[in-house]
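Researcher: Please translate sequence to C-alpha cells.
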Amino acid sequence: MLFIMNTLRTYMLRGWTVVTLTVCLLAAPLFAAAMTKEDREHLLVHFEMTTQMVAEQVHGLSPAQLEYKASPDRWSIREVISHLAVAEPDYWRDIQKALKAAPDMNEKKSVATDADILWYGIDRVVHTKTGGGHEKVDTYKNLGEALVKFQALRATMIEYIKTTNDDMRAHSFGDREVIDCWQWILEISTHAERHIQQIREIKSDPSFPKK
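Model: Translation complete:
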C-alpha cells in the first residue's frame, strides 16, 4: 500500500510540474512583448536610409574636399565620418547594457515623443557641442578606414533590428532625461542624419573645392 501511495504521489507531483510549466509558458508573453511590426519597420527603414546616405555623401570626393573646413573651428567631411565611427560603437554598447537591465518603463515616462527623436535628425537650427570623447575626430585620419568601421557596425545593428525579440519599449535609457530604448536606437540613426545634413552644409559652402 505504501508503494502505491508513493507512486501516486510521484505522478501527482509530475502532473503539477507540467501544469506549472504550461501556465508559465502561456503567461510569458504577458510580461515580455516582442517589438511591434511597425516599430521594427520604422527602425529598419531609417537605419538603411542613413547608412546609404552616408556612403553617398562621401562617394567620389577628393582629398581636398574631404579635408575642407569652412572655418578652423568647424569639422571637415572626413572628420564627420570619423566622429560617427567613434561614437556609434559607444551608443551601441550603451543600448545593449540598458536592455540587460530589468524592464522599468512602466514606472517612468519618456521625456520625448517619437516625433521629437525624428525631428532631432533634421533640426540644424540648434547646434549642440560634442563631448564624451566623441569629439576626437582625428581617430581615423583615413576616410576609407572610418567608413568601413561605420558600415560594419551598421550591418550588425540592422541585423539586430531585423531579428530581435527584445521589448525595447519596456526598457528605459538615460538617467536624467529618460527615453525608452526604442527611441534611443532610433536616435543613433537620427544622430547620423544630423551629420549628413552637416556634410551637405560643408559642400554648399561657397569656398568648397570644386575638385
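Researcher: Any highlights?
Model: The longest helix spans residues 2-31.
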